[in-house]
Amino acid sequence: MRPEPAVIPSVHGVVTASELVATAQSIARQQDPSGAIPWFAATRVDGQDLPPGHVDAWNHIEAAMALTVAGLTEPARRAYEWLRGEQRPDGSWPAKWIAGEVTEAGGESNHAAYLAVGVWHELLVTGDEEFVAGMWPSVRRAIDFVLGLQTVRGEIIWIRHPDGQPSDHALLTGCSSIYQSLRCAVALAEHLDEPQPDWELAADQLGHVIAAHPEAFADKGRWSMDWYYPVLAGPVRGLPAYQRIKDRWDTFVVGDLGCRCVSDQPWVTGAETCELVMALDSIGDQDRALELFTKMQFLRHEDGSYWTGYQFVNDRHFPGDRSTYTAAAVILAADALSGATPGSVIFKEIADRPLGPSAPADPAACGCEAAQIPSTVRSSADR
Q1: What's the pTM?
Q2: Are strands 107-108 and 159-160 parallel, antiparallel or unpaired?
Q3: 3-state SS string over the chain?
């Protein structure tokens, strides 16, 4: 029998362990027999039958991580097995499936990279070495695919189209997530005695570009994820992180409701709110993190699932689904706040090394002199 978490997360006065297990069960109920976890299962809303949401690798992995945190290891492992079976020879996955059919065939870089986060998290929580060894070839192929999209400057293009051509731009949120993924991939490689120094250098360069070169990324500033994700995933920490959060707090945070998805629409979303909770927790702002986590509980449904969002002008849930990725973000945020499982630190440190900013591996490639950025991440030169 695989080990399970010794403690299920709970947040005192907000959610109990049994309530979070119910939330995880709401994810498992929507999992396909194949193991795939869609955004939401087919449902009926306002008298209309709605088809299931799509599956993408990133949100699928996040949901699997949440299942593991809540002790539901069997559906989590089915999720990983499905993903391993769907990986393409180049290391990528299709961007979207609906009801088992590929609907967008391009391979997104942050989707492929996130497998490393999921596998490292699974190792932390369960200690299952056999699982890690079995997933390692998939992680290696995925990271090779991702780094094939890295530019000379250091950012990573967001998608390779079905014809094999890369897109012409990078995304700040996606690259921030990839930064954390690369740190997890390096840790896995070291754990398995297969060190990958080139991955470490790639992460160093990417982290620097995220922190110092906003011109490298497409303008997606209306999305809250572009605001907080560089903090959440680690390339921006310390005083710059506090300043970044302060600068757009009033743009995205709405009173007693939570965090907007986009700045120009009147809705808050549970997943973005919980990711902001984890970003705040990662920089030591636990008071505001707990306050936001408490506020977003109005999205909880009686069966343990969470409404995706709330349109506060029309006073209605929007969109009208209770998504698996929202439930997953709630569970991961509760774990981060409570420190219940060993995986709770995954947005703070990787292999006992704090996530943080990095100096560029190649300052000339991004037009910089050697940046004086205090790095909290050990580089290959320190070995």
Answers
A1: 0.94
A2: antiparallel
A3: CCCCCCCCCCECCCECHHHHHHHHHHHHHHCCCCCCCCCCCCEEECCEEECCCCECHHHHHHHHHHHHHCCCHHHHHHHHHHHHHHCCCCCCCCCEEECCEEEECCEEHHHHHHHHHHHHHHHHHHCCHHHHHHHHHHHHHHHHHHHCCECCCCCEECEECCCCCECCCECHHHHHHHHHHHHHHHHHHHHCCCCCHHHHHHHHHHHHHHHHCHHHECCCCCEHHHHHHHHHCCCCCHHHHHHHHHHHHHHHEECCCEEECECCCCEEEHHHHHHHHHHHHHCCCHHHHHHHHHHHHHHECCCCCECCEEECCCCEECCCCCCHHHHHHHHHHHHHHHCCCHHHHCCCEECCEECCCCCCCCHHHHCCCCCCCCCCCCCHHHC
Residues 67 and 60 sit within 8 Å (Cβ to Cβ): no
- For the ranges 81-90, 303-312, 319-328, the lowest mean pLDDT is seen at 319-328
pLDDT score recorded for residue 44:
74
Q: For residue range 270-314, what is the model confidence (pLDDT) as tens digits?
A: 999 999 999 999 999 999 999 999 999 999 999 999 999 999 999
For residues 80 and 67, what is the distance between their CA atoms, to the nearest angstrom? 11
